[in-house]
Amino acid sequence: MSELTARHAIPLLVAGQGQKDVTHNEALMHLDALVFPVAERADLAEPPVSRVEGQCWLVAGSAMGEWAGQSGKYALWTAGGWRFLSLPEGGGVYVKSNGRFMRKSEGLWAVERWTGAVGPVIPLPSGGTVVDVQVRAAVTSLIQQLAAAGLLAA
User: Fold this and answer.
1) CA dist., res. 118 & res. 116, Å (int)
2) Which run of H or E residues covers position 134?
């Protein structure tokens, strides 16, 4: 039997193990970070100087310092130091610094794009007997932004 869960490598208790509280507490720390993953930032290659217990970061490529060799992992700061967690393919993390949701795809983190059904193509405003340049510009901008977000077909 494995000593770690298959998807998130959370420590399991094993028969006859001493100090089960240590393993159990470690598992709870992992779960606390993974239940709804939130990262402070996703663009740092080395640990931030200022950090609070429980904060997490997505480790950027070419990781250095205490993060060396941990590129692409989800770094959790605890009272006992850094814990590096590997989220499974397709796993997602909300990143506070940019207000975006990032998803792991082919081992890399990328900003999540809308993957639901894309709405119809909406034509840009034109024609009519009274032309309001400001309204037309606002509607055009709105349609372009919705298309860029993947909510409308371009």
Assistant:
1) 6
2) helix 133-148
Token pair, residue 20, equals 């089960």
Task: Return the structure tokens found at 8.
Answer: 């998130």
Q: How far apart are CA 66 and CA 62, in angstroms?
A: 12
Strand 92-95 to 38-39 pairing: parallel
Rounded to a whole number, what is the largest CA-CA distance in the chain? 84
At residue 17, φ and ψ (nearest 5 deg) are -75, 135
Task: Specify whether the CB–CB gap between 71 and 108 falls below 8 A.
Answer: no
Strand partners of residue 102: 93, 111
pTM for this model (two decimals): 0.66
What phi and psi values does residue 82 have, to the nearest 5 degrees? -80, 140
C-alpha 25/C-alpha 47 separation (Å) is 24
Is residue 94 within 8 A of residue 39, CB to CB? The reply is yes
pLDDT digits over 11-28, tens only? Answer: 888 888 888 888 888 888
Q: Which of 40-44, 74-78, 127-131 has the lowest mean pLDDT?
A: 127-131
Beta bridge partners of 58: 74
Element at 83 (helix H, strand E): strand 81-85
Please tell me the total number of residues recorded for the chain in this structure.
154
